[in-house]
Amino acid sequence: MGLPPDLLRFAGSLLAILLLAGMAWSLKLGPQRRLDSDNAAREAAREALDGFEPVALARDREGRAALLRDADDRLLLIRQHGSHFAGRLLGENASARIENGALIVDSGERRYGAVRLAIADAEAWRDAIARL
């Protein structure tokens, strides 16, 4: 007794969908992650720079970026990069300005680019970047 052709097509299609979903999951493709909590920002900082332990942070209201400071006054800028986050330690080439109430941070690296952060106390973070 053979299986009906429609059932075989359905089973084959289902198997193909599950295989593609598994591949997407293993490649970490999918919806963009958000920095929806301070703990998420701290974890992203640790992933970006091993051993970075923030003592202060400011998260973008939409969860797309964050600025973090450690006990040595190093500043780490984290921004969304696909479904992951990329981080850069800010140095003397970094600059910051305020536009329309948001902090615009230029890491000084052409490939990383500038990041817009809608954060509280943008002036204090701008001043901290200026002191680098």
Give keywords:
2 domains; 132 residues; four-stranded antiparallel β-sheet; elongated; single chain; 3 helices; alpha+beta; three-stranded antiparallel β-sheet
Concise synopsis of the structure shown:
With about 130 residues, the chain is an alpha+beta fold.
Descriptive notes:
There is one protein chain. With 132 residues, the protein is of the alpha+beta class. The chain has two domains: 1-30; 38-130. The protein has three helices and seven strands. Strands 1-2-3-4 form a four-stranded antiparallel beta sheet, with helices on both faces. Strands 5-6-7 form a three-stranded antiparallel beta sheet, with helices on one face. A hairpin with a 4-residue loop joins β2 (65-70) and β3 (75-81). The longest helix is centred in the first third of the chain and has 22 residues, at 5-26. The mean pLDDT is 91.
